[in-house]
Amino acid sequence: MATAISIENVSKSYRLGLIGTGTLREDLQGWWHRVRGLPDPNRRVDQSHLPVEGHTLWALQDVSLEIQPGEILGIIGRNGAGKSTLLKILSRVTAPTSGRIRVKGRVASLLEVGTGFHPELTGRENIFLNGAILGMTKAEVAKKFDEIVDFSEIEQFIDTPVKRYSSGMYVRLAFAVAAHLDPEILVVDEVLAVGDAAFQKKCLGKMDEAGAGGRTILFVTHNMIAAQSLCKRTVWLDRGRVMEDGATAAVVSRYLRNAWGAQREKTWDERAQAPGNDTARLRKIRVVPQVATPSDVVTMATPFAIEIEYEVMESGTMLHVAQHLINEQGLIVLTSGEVARIHPAGRYKAVCHMPGNLLNSGKYSLNIYFLKDNSKLLFRHDGVVSFDVVDTQEREIGFMVREPGVVQPVLKWDWIEER
């Protein structure tokens, strides 16, 4: 069987410094941000995790892979590991610095929200435009049109210019187009995280169906549950290199153990380096045990606090800070957030109090979300801190082995003798 994608010793470098973006507007925007001590908003590469040599940053280094027809390949790794760069090279958005790639078949890509759509055109017109880009005739697209619209669930907005679509509507239509226009290879970045849970499940089912039908799929995700349910094989990228390539369960396990070495506190002293944007920035986060324990560990019985310090630069912002607590299987254990409120400019601390005797033992990580006006995602930061919950057998009920379950609360039981 011929290989669908062959990647041979591919590397990609970017030159650092004052390099033009290609448009006068973005060059001026970048210059104005640098004058104010802020990061360039047009630089999308997270440099903190990538190897830098002089003025050259290596986003990928000597990557070699072979993907077979019909294979669903998961690609995982921390932010800045080179995942999106690899997909952009495969999608011919950018060219590799060195190495060779052979692709057999048409490629449809979902790299980021709105990619490939013309904002002034309607949803209907963009469906036909994307079909033409994939090399399909108007008749071929028309045959699939009703199916695409039905899957996207945005029929009432199909004749509305897509510039008026929300990010979720963009994703619905973009995925529906890519999945139904019969490309031999489907490349999917983390865009599905934008959609609601029901639509994400629908998309995962469609990708599973496409793989069973012989289509090759490359799936970049931070959702380890989705990777394990959809992909038999997964590649772990770190600092532009392939760290592991093999059975998904084994690769995910090693990745999580490596990525979540306990780091209960993270501080950004310089505003320009802190996650966020011109409206607000995350400045410090830490996990603090609320009772004294040996070595200050968090046990299953230990109540602890999650302290989130942030700075608001845009006075009068209606801001809502939320968190996802993630376990070592990548499952969201719980979601919690402070009440949205209007913030004058200044520094703030939001504190979430977690009770003891709730979480099972294991490793946990936090994803932090800042939302504006109760609905708009201002920014997010994944895996910002991690910590271990240890079973020291000090609970009222204790077991010699780890009990199954996401949580292990101590619940009240009554014993009543019936006569």
Oligomer: single chain
- Mean pLDDT figure: 81
Biggest sheet record? 7 strands, mixed
Poorly predicted residue ranges: 44-49, 394-401
- Helix and strand composition category: alpha+beta
Number of folding domains? 2
Shape: globular
Q: Kindly provide the name of the CATH class of the largest domain.
A: Alpha Beta
CATH architecture of the largest domain: 3-Layer(aba) Sandwich
C-alpha end-to-end distance:
73 Å
CATH superfamily of the largest domain: P-loop containing nucleotide triphosphate hydrolases
Order of helices and strands: EHEEEHEEHHHEHEHEEHEEEEEEEEEEE
What features would you describe in this structure?
32% of the residues are buried. The longest helix has 16 residues, at 197-212. The protein has two domains: 5-29 and 44-259, P-loop containing nucleotide triphosphate hydrolases (Rossmann fold); 265-390, abc- transporter (atp binding component) like domain (Coagulation Factor XIII, Chain A, domain 1, Distorted Sandwich). Helix content is 23%, strand content 33%. It has 419 residues and is of the alpha+beta class. The model is unreliable at 44-49 and 394-401 (pLDDT under 50). The radius of gyration is 24 Å and the shape is globular. Helix 3 packs across helix 5 (167-180) and helix 5 runs parallel beside helix 6 (197-212). It has helices spanning 24-35, 83-90, 123-133, 138-152, 167-180, 197-212, 224-230, 248-259; strands spanning 5-15, 52-53, 56-67, 72-76, 98-103, 107-110, 185-188, 216-220, 233-238, 241-247, 265-267, 280-289, 298-299, 304-312, 317-327, 332-337, 341-343, 346-354, 362-372, 376-381, 386-390. The protein is built from eight helices and 21 strands. The strands form four sheets. Strands 13, 15, 16, 17, 19, 20 and 21 form a seven-stranded mixed beta sheet that branches.
